[in-house]
Amino acid sequence: MKIRDFVEKELQMFRDECNFTDEELQVFNLRAKDVSYTAIAYQLGMSESKVYDIAKRVKKKMIRVL
Known about the structure:
Low-confidence stretches: none
Strand content: under 5%
Mean pLDDT: 97
Structural class: mainly alpha
Shape: globular
Oligomer: single chain
Helix content: over 70%
Radius of gyration: 11 Å
Largest sheet: none
């Protein structure tokens, strides 16, 4: 499952239903635009490993909603 493959209506449903934290929402929105983990880490001022951890939490929440 790749976040970039969802259409905007589906992305909005995840935003509404997943109860993302602020960090999770930032990562979700950037991944929806197909921004790399490295670029996200740079933009948000965090390590790549932290971005990967946040992305895992995001995907778990998305799976629960589905």
